[in-house]
Predict the structure.
Amino acid sequence: MKFILFLFSLITGHALALTLTTEDYPPFNIVDPKTQKVSGISTEKVSEVMRRSKEAFTITPYPWLRAFQLAQKETDTCVFSTTRTPEREASFKWVGPLVKNNWYIFARAGDTRSPKNLKELKAYSIGAYRGDAIAEYLEKNGFKTDLAKADEDNPQKLLSNRFDFWASGELLGLSILKRKNLSDKIIPILLFNQTEMYLACNLKTSQVKIDNYNKILQDMDKDGTNLAIENKYR
């Protein structure tokens, strides 16, 4: 299909639209379940970068692993919001940071265990979701994990005692709990890391484009655009 589109672009003189993939990760990427339209802090920032660069683009939500793998394999494709880690560094060209993301441990309300740091949870099983940077971090550091297909599944698994604790992004976790009316049953108890999330582009993406996107994002910091977007979601 991309080859056909490439031939069409040569014939018509139109550049191929950049494909941006994402997942539902509120408040950074928020997917409307009915329309599949995507909003959120990262989404608005990325869209403004594309608008200022006069880049034609589409944004399509997928399950995370699918979104991530498409950007790895397909030219003219980028994925957001992607945690930049040493393990992922050489797999993409990076635009950002777009946002900061606090990683939290969540527990059942009433759980009397009060860990002071992540090491104290080595004896317990921790829920996360497959392909996520948090899950990769826990597995790399030798923690026992129980991985779901989507983070949305983890609150009920925690309440059903499928695992002892749940690890998620702070704002994502709180959003999921609010959506499921579980904010009184599960609470955040431990901040264990802070990361930065980026737009991660296929390695064949022009470096000139990447440099331009990064410059535009820096300009958006300076002119107050990024702060204005963030304030909309507070």
Remarks:
- The CA atoms of residues 27 and 234 lie 9 Å apart.
- The beta strands are 18-22, 30-31, 38-39, 57-61, 77-83, 93-108, 125-129, 144-148, 165-169, 186-201.
